[in-house]
Amino acid sequence: MMELTRKGEYAIRGIIYLAQQPPGRVSLISEIAAAAEVPQTFLAKIFQSFAKLGLVTSSRGTGGGFVLARPASAITLREVVEAVEGPILPNRCLLGSACDRGGPCRVHAVWKQVQTEVVHILDGVTIDTLARNPEH
Amino acid sequence: MMELTRKGEYAIRGIIYLAQQPPGRVSLISEIAAAAEVPQTFLAKIFQSFAKLGLVTSSRGTGGGFVLARPASAITLREVVEAVEGPILPNRCLLGSACDRGGPCRVHAVWKQVQTEVVHILDGVTIDTLARNPEH
DNA sequence: CACCTTTAGGACCAATTTGATCCCTTTTAT
DNA sequence: ATAAAAGGGATCAAATTGGTCCTAAAGGTG
Known about the structure:
homodimer, mainly alpha, Arc Repressor Mutant, subunit A, two-stranded antiparallel sheet, 2 strands, elongated, DNA-binding
């Protein structure tokens, strides 16, 4: 359980590639897809999400492409993952104030703790760290 | 992301009910399903998994049903969740020694850390604790 | 302007997973 | 024998995942 989907994997691989480019260099989606070994049309959708959320800036037309919107050191793994997979919610009952059967359910506090821990870990990792990581 | 499925929710609700019964008391699947407000046939499958894994003992025929195989204080939330959802694996690459593209991937260590933390949290919660929890 | 390049966005689709249900078999007590 | 349970397999609809395709929009260039 708790598995990252392909979309999440592709998102991470793609943005790491961007982070490895010289600052300010524009990359085509075709280039990123080839480098990250990811289906191009699928990756295009992922980068659309990134652009909407302000993780990357996109430009169209000749010379267009994608650049990180912020330094890689200011983009966390959590942001990237949540951009495509949605918020980290181990159990539905973390959403509303009450579980489905009246009052917070018995395991509510446990899931809350899991959520907090995972968010904390993913917030502590930046794309810059991953991009520089020699462990390849 | 990281959401528990219905199966996981049902599993937890069902085993908590069992833990709330007087020690040694046999419960019918129909009774558990009604109390936990879970589809009976679906819950039956879940309890089959429990029985196979030795979390509960089952007996057939008149007077048959389910009982916890161990004291509720000796059954962890992790066991219950993993019984129906499979092992806690945030990323596929935690499975084999290498990621799909040669060598451990850049995020490998992060997912390993997430896995370790979640397992630790869920191992620290017993069904007994949940069953007694006044927060309902 | 016309034309090419590139992302944006929507529609669509196949495969897989999820969430069940049904039916028949096996075991066990009476 | 018979009734009462769980065991196990087949089946199925709905949702999600993983992707493709096509057209539109935007931005450079001659």
